[in-house]
Request: fold
Amino acid sequence: MRLQEFGFAVRHARQQLGLTQQALAKSAGVSRTTLNQLENGLFSNLSVNKLQSLLEKVGLTLALLPATKNKRKDPFEAACTTASISYKNPLTVDELIRGLLTGAIPAGKRPHFRTLLQEVPKILLQELVSEAKRWSEAGKVEKNLVKIADELGVSLNDN
Reply:
Protein backbone atom coordinates (compact mmCIF):
# COMPACT_ATOMS: atom_id res chain seq x y z
CA MET A 1 0.00 0.00 0.00
CA ARG A 2 1.31 3.42 -0.94
CA LEU A 3 1.13 6.55 1.20
CA GLN A 4 -1.09 8.06 -1.51
CA GLU A 5 -3.75 5.46 -0.68
CA PHE A 6 -3.72 6.53 2.95
CA GLY A 7 -4.12 10.14 1.89
CA PHE A 8 -7.08 9.33 -0.34
CA ALA A 9 -8.75 7.33 2.46
CA VAL A 10 -8.18 10.10 5.00
CA ARG A 11 -9.60 12.74 2.64
CA HIS A 12 -12.67 10.66 1.86
CA ALA A 13 -13.34 9.89 5.54
CA ARG A 14 -12.73 13.53 6.56
CA GLN A 15 -15.18 14.77 3.97
CA GLN A 16 -17.77 12.19 5.00
CA LEU A 17 -17.50 13.50 8.57
CA GLY A 18 -17.82 17.10 7.39
CA LEU A 19 -14.45 18.09 8.84
CA THR A 20 -12.21 20.75 7.39
CA GLN A 21 -8.51 20.05 6.92
CA GLN A 22 -7.76 22.62 9.61
CA ALA A 23 -10.08 20.97 12.16
CA LEU A 24 -8.76 17.46 11.52
CA ALA A 25 -5.14 18.57 11.51
CA LYS A 26 -5.54 20.40 14.82
CA SER A 27 -7.29 17.48 16.53
CA ALA A 28 -4.70 15.00 15.23
CA GLY A 29 -1.72 17.16 16.17
CA VAL A 30 -0.36 17.70 12.67
CA SER A 31 -0.11 20.81 10.54
CA ARG A 32 -2.76 21.57 7.94
CA THR A 33 0.03 21.64 5.35
CA THR A 34 1.06 18.09 6.29
CA LEU A 35 -2.55 16.90 6.02
CA ASN A 36 -3.01 18.69 2.70
CA GLN A 37 0.16 17.12 1.28
CA LEU A 38 -0.89 13.67 2.52
CA GLU A 39 -4.37 14.00 1.00
CA ASN A 40 -2.90 15.10 -2.32
CA GLY A 41 -0.38 12.27 -2.47
CA LEU A 42 2.58 14.62 -2.20
CA PHE A 43 3.87 13.81 1.27
CA SER A 44 6.58 11.19 0.98
CA ASN A 45 7.35 10.62 4.64
CA LEU A 46 4.98 10.57 7.60
CA SER A 47 5.57 8.96 10.97
CA VAL A 48 3.37 6.04 11.94
CA ASN A 49 2.27 7.94 15.06
CA LYS A 50 1.00 10.91 13.03
CA LEU A 51 -0.66 8.64 10.50
CA GLN A 52 -2.37 6.65 13.26
CA SER A 53 -3.58 9.84 14.91
CA LEU A 54 -5.11 11.06 11.65
CA LEU A 55 -6.70 7.68 10.93
CA GLU A 56 -8.21 7.43 14.40
CA LYS A 57 -9.77 10.91 14.14
CA VAL A 58 -11.66 9.88 11.00
CA GLY A 59 -12.65 6.42 12.22
CA LEU A 60 -10.03 4.38 10.38
CA THR A 61 -7.35 2.08 11.68
CA LEU A 62 -3.97 0.86 10.57
CA ALA A 63 -3.78 -2.92 10.40
CA LEU A 64 -1.09 -5.42 9.50
CA LEU A 65 -2.13 -8.25 7.22
CA PRO A 66 -0.14 -11.08 5.69
CA ALA A 67 1.30 -10.11 2.34
CA THR A 68 -0.36 -11.68 -0.64
CA LYS A 69 1.72 -13.08 -3.43
CA ASN A 70 1.03 -10.79 -6.31
CA LYS A 71 2.29 -12.22 -9.58
CA ARG A 72 1.47 -8.99 -11.40
CA LYS A 73 4.36 -6.53 -11.46
CA ASP A 74 3.68 -3.09 -10.07
CA PRO A 75 3.00 -0.81 -13.06
CA PHE A 76 4.93 2.07 -11.46
CA GLU A 77 8.02 -0.10 -11.00
CA ALA A 78 7.74 -1.41 -14.54
CA ALA A 79 7.42 2.12 -15.94
CA CYS A 80 10.36 3.39 -13.86
CA THR A 81 12.53 0.50 -15.05
CA THR A 82 11.73 1.27 -18.69
CA ALA A 83 12.20 5.02 -18.23
CA SER A 84 15.55 4.55 -16.48
CA ILE A 85 17.24 1.93 -18.65
CA SER A 86 19.63 4.41 -20.31
CA TYR A 87 20.31 6.67 -17.34
CA LYS A 88 22.72 6.56 -14.43
CA ASN A 89 20.23 7.95 -11.90
CA PRO A 90 16.96 6.04 -12.09
CA LEU A 91 13.48 7.53 -11.96
CA THR A 92 11.95 6.47 -8.64
CA VAL A 93 8.37 5.38 -8.12
CA ASP A 94 7.83 8.38 -5.82
CA GLU A 95 9.12 10.76 -8.50
CA LEU A 96 6.85 9.20 -11.11
CA ILE A 97 3.78 9.37 -8.86
CA ARG A 98 4.57 12.95 -7.83
CA GLY A 99 4.89 13.93 -11.50
CA LEU A 100 1.56 12.36 -12.36
CA LEU A 101 -0.18 13.98 -9.39
CA THR A 102 1.30 17.46 -9.88
CA GLY A 103 2.06 17.73 -13.59
CA ALA A 104 5.59 18.85 -12.69
CA ILE A 105 8.60 16.88 -13.85
CA PRO A 106 11.07 16.32 -10.98
CA ALA A 107 14.46 18.02 -11.34
CA GLY A 108 16.83 16.06 -13.55
CA LYS A 109 14.15 13.63 -14.74
CA ARG A 110 13.02 15.22 -18.02
CA PRO A 111 14.87 12.57 -20.10
CA HIS A 112 13.26 9.81 -18.02
CA PHE A 113 9.76 11.19 -18.58
CA ARG A 114 10.46 11.62 -22.30
CA THR A 115 11.58 7.98 -22.48
CA LEU A 116 8.54 6.95 -20.47
CA LEU A 117 6.13 8.70 -22.82
CA GLN A 118 7.89 7.53 -25.97
CA GLU A 119 8.75 3.93 -25.10
CA VAL A 120 6.32 2.60 -22.51
CA PRO A 121 3.44 0.70 -24.13
CA LYS A 122 0.18 2.65 -24.17
CA ILE A 123 -1.51 -0.02 -22.04
CA LEU A 124 1.05 0.53 -19.28
CA LEU A 125 0.54 4.31 -19.41
CA GLN A 126 -3.20 3.70 -19.10
CA GLU A 127 -2.57 1.44 -16.10
CA LEU A 128 -0.41 4.14 -14.47
CA VAL A 129 -3.15 6.74 -14.95
CA SER A 130 -5.79 4.32 -13.69
CA GLU A 131 -3.81 3.66 -10.49
CA ALA A 132 -2.76 7.27 -9.86
CA LYS A 133 -6.19 8.78 -10.45
CA ARG A 134 -7.53 6.86 -7.46
CA TRP A 135 -5.54 9.33 -5.32
CA SER A 136 -6.60 12.51 -7.08
CA GLU A 137 -9.51 14.58 -8.30
CA ALA A 138 -11.30 13.30 -11.39
CA GLY A 139 -9.43 14.13 -14.59
CA LYS A 140 -6.42 15.68 -12.86
CA VAL A 141 -3.91 12.89 -13.63
CA GLU A 142 -4.96 12.76 -17.28
CA LYS A 143 -4.53 16.57 -17.57
CA ASN A 144 -1.16 16.37 -15.85
CA LEU A 145 0.05 13.68 -18.25
CA VAL A 146 -0.99 15.83 -21.22
CA LYS A 147 0.78 18.83 -19.62
CA ILE A 148 3.98 16.81 -19.21
CA ALA A 149 3.79 15.51 -22.77
CA ASP A 150 3.26 19.04 -24.11
CA GLU A 151 6.17 20.37 -22.04
CA LEU A 152 8.42 17.66 -23.51
CA GLY A 153 7.06 18.00 -27.05
CA VAL A 154 5.92 14.37 -27.07
CA SER A 155 2.68 13.09 -28.58
CA LEU A 156 0.74 10.69 -26.37
CA ASN A 157 -0.76 9.08 -29.47
CA ASP A 158 2.53 7.73 -30.77
CA ASN A 159 2.86 4.69 -28.51
About this structure: Residues 75-152 form one domain. The two ends are 29 Å apart (CA to CA).
